Amino acid sequence: MAALVELLTVILGLLSCSSAALLPQSPLGPSPNQQFISPQSSTPLPLVVWHGLGDNYKADGLRSVGEIANATNPGTYTYFVRLDDDPSSDRTATFLGNVTEQVSKVCRDLADHPILSKAPAINALGFSQGGQFLRAYVERCNRPPVHTLVTFGSQHNGISEFQNCGDNDWVCQSWDGYLKRNTWSHFVQSRLVPAQYYRNPEDLQGYLENSNFLADINNERAGRSNATYKENLKKLSKFVMYMFSEDVTVVPKESAWFADYNKTSDEITWLKERRIYKEDWLGLRWLDEKKRLEFKIAEGKHMQLNEELLSDTFKRYFGANASGNERISGRYVAMER
Asked: How far apart are CA 262 and CA 13, in angstroms?
């Protein structure tokens, strides 16, 4: 019980000082009261956005992303993933919670959504940890199906360090220390979100035996791979992964491209050199051979986004005439109810 009290105190301290601003706020559009009724239209697919650690679905910067999406591709309906309708509780859920249960909730929410459930497909945009969570959505349920998945600075191959703490940041140091001492405990793996995508190449056995989330969605456990994960990922028309060039928040930053990093030898093993690609555990090699897998660089630090980059991304990958849209069965038009 003492450990639990200590942990919750540390987490609450983090919640009071963490933030993940993107861009200044501007009004959202279009109207949420849309209905997809016609098979003949050039209206862009709905966009689902899953935010990162320390953010919430109503954050100023995040809401402006929807405005940019609609300005770039008029008529875009944007849905922001939320784990609670209360923004504060939604933010808390980025730190505390069982990721497997969180993904299951999002699967239910999207399948039951009055607008998204009527679309032939959706596009998906994941910021930081939201990227691997959206990939888990594709692998585990994918209803409505994702057409194009774009991730920014996500930890597809996990993190090998939790956080770089300042010399006088006792809250961060306490949190980091607790996690390092108890990383593979059931308590941590079922409650602390970042721990559930922790992956240290120097302790792969502990990871494979105890990881609550990442080892599963990456199909890394011998004899326990899930063929559905691979088949669902192969249904993507595009899987685009952005890595931030100066990212020091995510360690290693190359995780955004499924790369492996050995801290002791300081060696990077890129995706195409890894067994996960060569043996095609997830369908990544298949996507790559079909020219549906893209590795992109975003200049700057972690989540250092700007309107130009987002607009270009939305136009290139989410527009009504974006590459791969010919694979959608059934066009639709957004009409007011």
From this structure: 31
